[in-house]
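fyi for ur records
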Amino acid sequence: MATKESSESETPLDEVMEDIRGELVRRVAAADRDANRDIYDALENE
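which gave:
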């Protein structure tokens, strides 16, 4: 994973891309939870 340089300022494109990446991470996590709901439920009930 890339690290941000403190000396570089973000462009509007960088900000939009960061928002898109964050949304993708949230969607993938939600899809994983839905696909593996039985495992998550079993772990929650232990």
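The radius of gyration is 17 Å. thats all i got for now
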